[in-house]
What does this fold into?
Amino acid sequence: MRFSLTTSSRAPVILVSAMIIIVLAIFNFGSWFFIQRMEKSLENELATRLQAVARIGAELVANSRFPDYLTRGQENSARLVVSPVLAGLSGEVEVQQIFLIDKAWRVLASSDQNLFPAGKEVFYLIEDSVAAQRAWQGEVSASPLRVIAEARFKTAYAPVRNEAGQIVCLFVAEANAGFFNLILQFRQGLVAGGIASFAVLIILGFFLASAIALFLRTQENLRRSERLASMGQMAATVAHEIRNPLGIIKNTAEVLQQKYENKQQPDELFEFIPAEVRRLNRLMNDFLGFARDRELLLKRGDLVKTVQHALALMRKEEQSHRIAWQLHSACDKIPAAYDEDAITQVLMNLFLNASQAMNGNGKVDIHLEEQSKVRERIYLRIADNGPGLPVAPEKIFEPFFTTKSRGSGLGLPVCKQIIEKHKGRISAESQHGQGTTIHIWLPG
It folds into this structure.
């Protein structure tokens, strides 16, 4: 049953988590793919536009007197002829720079004499050597995107021929691709968003894991509570029905003892029945105490006096005569509101457990103090030097769990129930071979 509950509880949450991961992954990868496609498309469009400008510009320059003057070595005359053509074309096609270069990357003429004066060697174009080489071979080409001073540029090259068909220079059209910076920012934002969404996913996963764990614990506690409620109701019914026959058996045994026991030679067999009846009565009391919802009668009292009273009762027990009981109280009197009978029951149960753990021979330290500035201001510690617990300390408070061969496993759960109804808490710690310590905190 537990497996099916766990599986069915986890399945919807795991499904929702998987769907969230898939949606986030699709969104991020889809956005990244869209940006890549858009950037590639825009770059191709810009390259096509620049190549068209370079082709038209190269034809205009080739149709002027520029190639003839350049072929004859009259560079100044060539520049004077072509400069107005380049300046006019630059304004019409809306590109940043237009200039003519030779094979030494030297400017022959440009649309902006201040920025690209004649004779200037434009060495950054060496990065476009492949595209430029293709242009020198007669093709119209475009360079990849290039970054200069944090600005993005794209350049197109077209060959300029003379009347003989010889390539005398290259027409260069350069455009600022600043809009790619916006795409870059968007891509960076997408990366940051992906990281942020991944972080949110981790946090969400942690939250879901905690929620699942809490849900499963709550579900298990509810299932255990239902089971314990059924068992408690059954135990209460059985205990109630058994107590009356036990009383009759005890009375009958006592009558038989008085009638047939030899006073000169007592027979211990006559003590077995009353002793076992008393043990069964204690078991029945444990069952009834755990099953019924006991109402507490809270009154102001002295907790030191109550502990001393319970300790005095325990010292009278035959199995406790060889135990050194030591009470350490920081105050002579600790006033508190509590149910004296219920707390006495808790103390007697804990003292009895300590005595049984040490087989009636050892030492028990009881420490009681009043702590200020805390809600649970009364602290009680009961420590024995017995063999310690063979299991995890928290298991001893589970109903019907016992380490003793003759026990109901309800004594400590009843103690926990009483302490918690006082709005306090109880815990245990133990190390193998070094004894067990019970901690109790109570409000004032």
Q: What stands out?
A: The first helix runs from residue 2 to 63. The chain has nine helices and 13 strands. Residues 172 and 234 are 98 Å apart (CA to CA). The two ends are 43 Å apart (CA to CA).
